[in-house]
Write a structure and sequence with these properties.
The complex is a heterodimer of chains A (about 120) and B (about 850). Chain A has about 120 residues and is an alpha/beta fold. Chain A has four helices and eight strands, in the order ββαββααβαβββ. Chain A has a four-stranded mixed β-sheet, covered by helices on one side. A two-stranded parallel ribbon of chain A has the order 2-8. Chain B has seven domains: about 150 residues, Beta-Lactamase; about 30 residues; about 100 residues, PAS domain (Beta-Lactamase), CATH 3.30.450.20; about 80 residues, no CATH class; about 160 residues, Histidine kinase-like ATPase, C-terminal domain (Heat Shock Protein 90), CATH 3.30.565; about 130 residues, Response regulator (Rossmann fold, 3-Layer(aba) Sandwich), CATH 3.40.50; about 80 residues, no CATH class. Chain B is built from 23 helices and 24 strands. In chain B, strands 11, 12, 13, 14, 15, 16 and 17 form a seven-stranded mixed β-sheet that branches. A five-stranded antiparallel β-sheet of chain B has the order 2-1-5-4-3. Chain B has a five-stranded antiparallel β-sheet with strand order 7-6-10-9-8. In chain B, α10 runs antiparallel to α13 and α20 runs antiparallel to α23. The chains are: A alpha/beta (about 120), B alpha+beta (about 850). Chains A and B meet through α1 of A and α1 of B.
Chain lengths: ~120, ~850
């Protein structure tokens, strides 16, 4: 479940737009807020599914992508945190965006729907 | 002379090479420039595509979130590219989202993918922005081609400039090379070719100091050296006095020096290329030099033919040039002068010989002319001395006449001998003879003469002498007579000594040595050297008078002819010694000693019919005394005054012997002898020629005419009688009773008789000595001879000695000898006179 700060103007985004955000290809929201994307720790069960369904990559491809990004563009990968921490972090930042399991969802964050 | 400029000259080659280099470098530059430009375009295009592709991926999220500021920023970044013209991002509908730079963008078709278009100085790239299956929009990029085209233009300019530079440099260097190499080389080549064509004065320029210059310098000094050598050789050829011709292998004249032209009269240079046969028929000598493989041969006499056809004798020498080639060098020396000199020499020689012959003939004639009257003088004076009716005074006068005749005869003989020696006409006539006989003869001849002068004659023949030897006795005898005669003549007291000995030398040659010593006046040292020259006499000889001064000269010449030399040692006042040695041949025994018969013939032995003698002489005087003499002896005589008369008498009278004079009018002796000998029975008559000629040639002619013998005029009585005896095989009666001498084996030195003449005379009966002296005083030759013959009854040697004196009319000596005997008889109480 992709979550954003409640003040976020978007309710829904296409999968490719979501993937741009998480792959740090876009740095600011259309209203100017800085995109602050978070990744989950390696051992979070949904991380693998997220990568495969949204980013269309395996975990290994993802790791390679970030190595490549860091070396060619100087872009470092997003922070990797626990799902609980991710919810708290997104709630505190207007431009924040993360993904968490459904079980950890609460009203402090806004769910960003993914229309295909 | 125009310089030939062949297409392949060095300069043309330089130009061609330069042109090729220019073309090559131009085309390479052009190719490189085009390639460069193509690469530049490609590079521009690919860089434009790259930019478009990269930007496309960045733009997709930005379009997704419609963040136009970000887009703008991203596009602004593209301005850093210097060729950037414009960039535009549009959405799927073609609406521009962000745009940088002025642009006239091409239509973006999302479906058609990447498009690149070129035009208007811009490179336009248009690409759809597709990501994750979504076509987000379109990205358009414009890249200015200006810079690239500028670069390309600059490149072109550089290329063209470089090409032009290359052409210029090539042309310049080509020109330089042409100037510094091709032209000097061409000029050098031209000069060398001029020299080649004989223009020896051609100057060779020496430009720079480089290799071409060195080459030119080398050529120049080479040509100078060549010119020097050529001048040197030409100088040699020009200054040669002899002709020199060089002939090549085809026999053509390659070189001929000026001497050749002047010798043969051809114009200078006209003989070159002509065949050698044109100037000489002596081509075979050239062939000989070639064929025989010899390097050279010289001293060949051939003839050259001049232009006017005159043949010129030359002394030629030929040699191969350089030793082995077929070219032959032929030198020839003009022999005309030499030939002329030879001819002159020859004619001079002939003239000299003919004048010498004339001299000889003159001498022969003169001697004949002198001897003929002398013959009469001596013959008649001798005959008159036999006349007992003549008084003392008349006989003394006759003696003087006779002595003068003898002297004159000796003089003529000497002069003839000398002239024959000088003419080289004297030869040796060696024959075997008995040496002791000769010595004894000499002893007898000189003993009385010596002793009448109160001199002692000592003859000594060494026991090692061979008895029989072969030599020219006549000349030996003449020499010894001369030496002994001189000794007697120049000695007043003391002794005269003759010594003979013989030695065998290492080479087994036998040498006879003779030595005549006297104790006479001697000869001064300064006179000794000239003594053997003709007509040179010592002071004492001149004082004594008489003599010709020829005796010693003749003797010396005779001894030299025999291989010896007369030497002399003398001291004034003490005496002289003459001695000589001559080589002789030993002779075997068994020869007949031709000892002169010295006994007087008184008549013919009886039981012989009187031999008929015809005497032929144009001179009545000569006939007269001989006729009378021979009649006394017992011959039957007839006379004829010339050859024709002689033949008539011979045919009619058939004489046993003819005494034939040679020189007569009407028909001379030689002709008469020839005719008689041709007659049948003409050889039965013996002929003795009488000749006044002393010339050997005449004698040879006489002997060849068929005579039995000949006698020189004036005739010596005993010689004539002896020869008549030999011809007619006669036996004479002599005035001695003894048989003819046969003293073989008797050593001369031991002959007691010859040493005892005076003793013997002492022992003569008084009356006999008186009679002798009386006969002498009266000049009664007949009585004297008669008395001497009586002495011969006692001692033949003594009578011979006396006869020798009497024959030479040495009456003084005879009467001195007899004086002792007469005086002794008178002192012993004999009858006074």
């Amino acid at each position: 479940m992709v979550i954003v700060h409640p003040s976020n103007q978007f309710d829904a985004l296409s999968r490719s737009k979501v993937s741009y955000l998480f792959l740090r290809k876009v740095s600011r929201w259309p209203w100017g807020a800085e995109v602050a994307a978070l990744d989950l720790a390696e051992d979070e069960p949904i991380r693998r599914d997220f990568a495969r369904q949204v980013l269309l990559m395996t975990a290994e491809q993802l790791a390679e992508y970030w190595i490549d990004q860091r070396t060619t563009r100087g872009v470092s990968p997003p922070l990797q945190v626990r799902a609980a921490a991710a919810k708290l972090w997104v709630a505190a930042r207007p431009g924040g965006i993360a993904y968490i399991p459904l079980s950890a969802l609460d009203s402090t964050v806004k769910v960003l729907r993914m229309d295909s | 002379m125009m310089l030939r400029r062949p297409f392949h000259s060095i300069r043309t080659k330089f130009l061609l090479v330069g042109l090729a280099a220019v073309l090559l470098s131009g085309s390479v530059s052009f190719f490189l420039a085009a390639e460069q430009r193509r690469q530049l375009e490609q590079q521009l295009r690919s860089s434009a595509v790259n930019i478009a592709n990269q930007t496309k991926f960045v733009m997709a999220p930005l379009i997704a979130f419609d963040s136009r500021d970000e887009m703008k920023k991203a596009l602004e970044l593209l301005r850093t590219n210097p060729d950037f013209a414009y960039a535009r991002v549009s959405d799927g509908t073609g609406t521009a989202l962000a745009s940088v730079g002025s642009a006239a963008p091409i239509r973006c078709d999302a479906k058609s993918g990447l498009q690149v278009a070129d035009g208007g100085g811009l490179l336009r790239v248009s690409t759809p922005i597709v990501d994750g299956g979504t076509t987000w929009g379109c990205f358009q990029l414009g890249i200015s081609e200006a810079r690239s085209q500028r670069d390309a233009k600059r490149l072109w300019t550089i290329t063209i400039l470089a090409s032009l530079m290359t052409i210029l440099v090539t042309l310049a260097s080509g020109g330089y090379l042409a100037r510094s190499i091709a032209y000097p080389v061409a000029r050098l080549a031209e000069a060398v070719s001029r020299v080649e064509h004989g223009e020896w004065d051609t100057q060779i320029e020496v430009g720079s100091g480089d290799e071409v210059g060195q080459l030119a310098r080398g050529f120049r000094s080479m040509i100078q050296e060549l010119r020097r050598t050529k001048t040197y050789v030409e100088d040699i050829l020009h200054s040669m006095a002899d002709s020199l011709v060089v002939v090549d292998r085809e026999g053509k004249i390659r070189t001929a020096n000026p001497a050749t032209y002047s010798l043969l009269g051809y114009g200078e240079g006209t003989l070159l290329g002509e065949r050698i046969e044109r100037i000489t028929s002596g081509i075979e000598l050239l062939d000989a030099a070639r064929l025989q493989g010899e390097e050279s041969s010289s001293g060949i006499e051939v003839e050259y033919v001049a232009q006017n056809g005159v043949k010129i004798p030359v002394l030629a020498s030929v040699a191969r040039m350089g030793g082995h080639s077929d070219t032959v060098i032929c030198m020839a020396q003009d022999l005309r002068e030499r030939k002329r000199a030879e001819r002159e020499l020859l004619s001079a020689k002939e003239a000299a010989e003919s004048s010498n012959r004339a001299k000889s003939a003159f001498l022969a004639n003169m001697s004949h002319e002198i001897r003929t009257p002398l013959n009469a003088i001596m013959g008649y004076s001798q005959l008159m001395l036999r006349d007992s009716d003549l008084g003392w005074g008349a006989k003394e006068n006759l003696n003087i006449i006779n002595r003068s005749g003898v002297h004159l005869l000796a003089l003529i003989n000497d002069i003839l001998d000398m002239s024959k020696i000088e003419a080289g006409q004297v030869g040796l006539n060696p024959a075997p003879f008995d040496l002791p006989d000769l010595v004894k003869d000499l002893e007898v001849m000189f003993r009385l003469r010596a002793e009448t002068k109160g001199l002692k004659l000592d003859v000594d023949i060494s026991p090692d002498c061979r008895r029989s030897i072969e030599s020219d006795m006549g000349k030996l005898r003449q020499v010894l007579v001369n030496l002994l005669g001189n000794a007697v003549k120049f000695t007043e007291r003391g002794s005269i000594r003759l010594r003979m000995s013989m030695t065998q030398r290492e080479n087994r040659e036998l040498w006879l040595s003779a030595r005549v010593e006297d104790s006479g006046l001697g000869i001064a040292a300064e006179e000794q050297t000239g003594l053997f020259r003709p007509f040179v006499q010592s002071q004492s000889g001149r004082n004594l008078q008489g003599g010709t001064g020829l005796g010693l000269a003749i003797s010396q010449q005779f001894i030299r002819l025999m291989g010896g030399e007369i030497r002399l040692s003398s001291e004034v006042g003490k005496g002289s010694t003459f001695y000589f040695e001559v080589p002789v041949q030993p002779a075997d025994g068994g020869f007949v000693s031709k000892q002169m018969e010295t006994r007087r013939v008184t008549g013919l032995q009886s039981a012989q019919p009187a031999p008929r003698i015809l005497i032929v002489d144009d001179e009545p005087n000569n006939r007269g005394w001989l006729t009378r003499l021979l009649k006394i002896i017992g011959f039957s005589m007839r006379e004829a005054e010339d050859g024709a008369a002689a033949i008539r008498v011979w045919q009619e009278w058939k004489p046993d012997l003819i005494l034939m004079d040679m020189h007569m009018p009407v028909m001379d002796g030689l002709e008469a002898i020839r005719r008689i000998r041709q007659h049948p029975g003409g050889t039965e008559t013996a002929i003795i020629a009488l000749t006044a000629s002393a010339m050997d040639e005449d004698r040879r002619a006489i002997m060849q005419s068929g005579v039995n013998d000949f006698v020189s005029k004036p005739c010596q009585e005993h010689e004539l009688l002896q020869k008549m005896q030999a011809c007619l095989n006669l036996s004479y009666l002599y005035d001695g009773t003894e048989a003819p001498r046969n003293d073989s084996g008797a050593a001369l030195g031991s002959d007691p008789k010859s040493a005892a003449i005076e003793d013997l005379l002492q022992e003569l009966p008084h009356d006999f000595a008186r009679d002798l002296q009386l006969a002498i005083q009266n000049g009664d030759k007949g009585r004297l001879d008669q008395l001497i013959e009586q002495v011969g009854e006692r001692d033949v040697a003594v009578s011979n000695a006396l006869k020798d004196l009497a024959d030479r009319y040495e009456y003084d000596a005879l009467s001195r000898l007899l004086e002792g005997a007469v005086r002794r008889e008178t002192a012993a109480g004999g009858r006074p006179r």
